[in-house]
Write a structure and sequence with these properties.
Layout: H1 2-24, H2 28-34, E1 40-43, E2 50-57, E3 60-68, E4 78-89, E5 92-97, E6 103-113, E7 125-136, E8 142-152, H3 156-159
Antiparallel strand pairs: 1-2, 2-3, 3-4, 4-5, 5-6, 6-7, 7-8
Length: 166
């Protein structure tokens, strides 16, 4: 389990570096509408899982969910589900992920400032709303389960990557 957590942290750092450049291209219009650029990593459903948001301007949002599988065939395997669609409109946020192993997610909610005092605090931003998990069984029979969720931003100093070395 410790090895999985270490791998998850390493993956988070690598992904942050990859997505940091597009996030910087966010338009002034989107930033003004939300008040701030909320791009970054957020908690997802379980410890070790996360969702990455990257504002791209013009109301476009990209990102992905990185989570542990819950089917017998992928139990506790790390799965990445990229956004198929994603958008922002003021403080409203929505996305739908690609399907992986017959499971995909839909989210609709809002972004706001959280209890964190600085971007280096957990929960500087929170994204709250309705998350729907869609699944298909072996016979392609669909089902859906919805719940209210709160995603808390990770401290930005953890997202910055490795520091300067001597």
């Amino acid at each position: 389990m410790k090895r999985r957590c270490a791998l998850a942290v390493l993956l988070m750092l690598v992904v942050t570096v990859v997505f940091a450049a597009p996030a910087q291209k966010q338009s002034a219009q989107t930033q003004a509408a939300t008040g701030d650029d909320f791009s970054g990593m957020y908690s997802f459903l379980r410890e070790g899982e996360f969702v990455q948001f990257s504002l791209e301007g013009q109301g476009k949002l990209s990102g992905f969910v990185s989570r542990f599988g819950d089917l017998p065939s992928d139990k506790d395997a790390f799965l990445d589900q990229f956004f198929k669609t994603g958008s922002t409109d003021g403080k409203k946020v929505s996305f739908t992920t690609e399907s992986v192993h017959g499971t995909w997610f839909e989210f609709s909610g809002t972004v706001s400032r959280g209890p964190g005092k600085t971007p280096n605090d957990e929960g500087y931003y929170v994204i709250e709303g309705k998350l729907t998990k869609h699944t298909e069984d072996a016979n392609k029979k669909p089902s859906a389960e919805s719940r209210q969720v709160t995603f808390k931003s990770f401290p930005q100093d953890l997202q910055a990557g490795p520091g300067k070395r001597d």
